[in-house]
């Protein structure tokens, strides 16, 4: 909500806007080109047209004087302001509508109307209102920015870019415009242009850690991890105690498998904030990758003490127990994770893996099926479900699963081999050999594919 000082008890003149008002003889608002296409559904539709006089008008009261109109405007404006400050937006709009009926060029009232629609979340009406305001106060940088932000909120990136570009023409040294343009290009997926715009914003201001952080995130999205690390480190040089940037940098080191550096970043966070759940959980993940299961469990369990309802931590603890082949504990923690959040497909497929390892095949199949119901593209669930179907001689079902795996991951060698086994068991030797050959194209040294192909050829020769 805008500061009350912005409106000065609603009655002080807005010098910047009112000084730019367009005067017209009939006191009606000028229309910008294309107004009829805006489809206004706002209070401006209700402005009353002046009544035509008959040739012999009936005796009636004299029209109100300018002073009387101003006093009536003041009453409605004051009441509208009270409603606005109390969050009674519909009542506020009714009062400011009366102001606009009395004076369609009252930019002060129109600006408050714009603000009310913004705070109500009625983006389209806010856009229409600011467009009307722009027709009265053309070439206004603040209105361009508002329209840019509203169109960005609406998801109309091209219109948003258009209005921020118009604002840029008025003030090409406005840092915030470059930042917004960068955000738009980021949302459009044009990371190079987003980075360029953010760099221009940096050139117009003192070192800003938030901008370097934003650039680092863009490089991460782009896949340029070295540039990403440089940007995050620059941000940390300016704001060493910014926990979020250390988290982001640690995550990039983790992604690059530079685990020592990742540990350093997460430990820095814990030196700043010793109960940071994110850092404890991620330290656990790093130690898990290093197969240091004791330290992994220690950090996961510390995190769980602080955040006892975090399903991800339960799941991570379960993974450690699975790796240690302590299956009962793994099942216990996966089930706790599922009780908190039953809608995470990877947890169901991981639990399926534990059941599979314990020989509890029916339970494993059930969990893999649940995982696929939640995410039809869960590669792990499809592959291991296919293996269980093959083991149980449910070959048609296994075939469906392996074909789905290949569709999701065309370079998955084992899926070709296992699909070849399905065809071989069905007596379709030609298709079996084709799948083994496809596997060998992807991995020419694969011994299983070589042996299976050799055996299938011998078998085929025996039946010729």
Compile the SSE list and pairings.
Elements: H1 4-7, H2 15-18, H3 66-85, H4 89-102, H5 107-120, H6 123-136, H7 141-154, H8 157-170, H9 175-188, H10 191-203, H11 209-222, H12 225-238, H13 243-255, H14 259-272, H15 277-289, H16 293-306, H17 311-323, H18 327-340, H19 345-357, H20 361-374, H21 379-391, H22 395-408, H23 413-425, H24 429-442, H25 447-462
Helix pairs in contact: 3-4, 4-5, 5-6, 6-7, 7-8, 8-9, 9-10, 10-11, 11-12, 12-13, 13-14, 14-15, 15-16, 16-17, 17-18, 18-19, 19-20, 19-21, 20-21, 21-22, 22-23, 23-24, 23-25, 24-25
CATH architecture of the domain at 1-47 and 67-138: Alpha Horseshoe
Strand-and-helix sequence, N→C?
A: HHHHHHHHHHHHHHHHHHHHHHHHH
Taking the sheet with the most strands, its summary is: none
Percent strand: under 5%
Shape summary: elongated
Provide the residue-averaged pLDDT: 89
What is the distance, rounded to the nearest whole angstrom, between the alpha carbons of the first and last residues? Answer: 85 Å
Binned, the helix content reads over 70%
CATH topology-level fold name of the domain at 1-47 and 67-138? Serine Threonine Protein Phosphatase 5, Tetratricopeptide repeat
CATH class of the domain at 1-47 and 67-138: Mainly Alpha
- Topology, number of strands: 0
Radius of gyration: 33 Å
The fourth-level CATH homologous superfamily of the domain at 1-47 and 67-138 is Tetratricopeptide repeat domain
Helical/strand content category: mainly alpha
Task: Report the total helices.
Answer: 25
Sequence stretches where pLDDT stays below 50 over 5 or more residues? 1-56
